[in-house]
Amino acid sequence: MSSRRTLKAAEAIREVVSMAILTDLRDPRISGVTVTSVEVSGDMRQAKVNVSVMGSEQAQQLCLHGLNSAAGYLQQKVAARIDTRYTPKLLFVLDMGVKRSIEIARLLGDVLPSDDPLVAAEDDDVDTDAEDDDADEETPPDDSWTDADYFDDDDEEGEDSILRD
Fold first, then answer.
1. Comparing C-alpha atoms, which of 92, 3, 97 is closest to residue 48?
2. Given the DSSP bridges, would you call strands 33-40 and 46-53 parallel, antiparallel or unpaired?
3. Interatomic CA distance for residues 37 and 1, integer angstroms
4. Which of 60, 103, 61, 81 is nearest to 15 (CA)?
5. Does position 66 have pLDDT exceeding 90, yes or no?
6. Neighbour-count burial for 29-47, b at 16+ CB within 10 Å, e otherwise
7. Which sign does the torsion angle of CA 32, 78, 61, 63 carry?
8. How far is Cα 36 from Cα 122, in angstroms, rounded to an integer?
9. 3-state SS, one letter per residue, for the chain
10. 52-84 burial by CB neighbour count: b if 16+ within 10 A, else e?
11. How far apart (Å, rounded) are the C-alpha atoms in residues 2 and 134?
12. Is the distance from CB of 51 to CB of 62 less than 8 angstroms?
């Protein structure tokens, strides 16, 4: 279990690294990067930065190489933000969680039958709702409300009026 101190340091490192990647790094290899999480060791000497990179496998490896070459600059940014005796050494690791979830959703879509009666019943309900919406659009809106319904210009006896003649 991580201590509160390491969790706070991990969150600070995640914020600093993600903002530095977005704003400071000009390396063309680094694009489409999202810092998903950071894990800091107990002695605060190493930090594993999990990143998600959009693109092909080759683009992901190229981006990781760019991040590893910019690790010294990013460690300098981290050192300015957190006050510790040692600045954690950053290790960038590709987070495959997003790609795996997309792949699982695709596999489930292939495996599950589309002739499911519950799905067909929901589709029928959606179509009838769309027809009801069309019927509502044909009727004009009721414009019988006027300003007089909202504002009462008549002063009742005993009330002081704000406007004086």
1. 92
2. antiparallel
3. 16
4. 81
5. yes
6. bbeebebeebbbeeebeeb
7. positive
8. 36
9. CCCHHHHHHHHHHHHHHHHHHHHCCCCCCCCCEEEEEEEECCCCCEEEEEEEECCCHHHHHHHHHHHHHCHHHHHHHHHHHCCCCCCCEEEEEECCHHHHHHHHHHHHHHHCCCCCHHHHHHHHHHHHHHHHHHHHHHCCCCCCCCHHHHCCCCCCCCCCCCCCC
10. bbeeeeeebebbbebbeebbeebbebbeeeeee
11. 57
12. no
d(CA 84, CA 52): 27
The β-bridge partners of 106 are: none
Q: Which amino acid is at 63?
A: C
pLDDT, tens only, 122-153? 555 555 555 555 555 555 555 555 555 555 55
Amino acid occupying residue 76: Q
pTM above 0.85, yes or no: no
What residue type is assigned to position 115 of the chain? D
Tokens matching residue 148 = 């007089």
Token pair for residue 158?
A: 């005993």
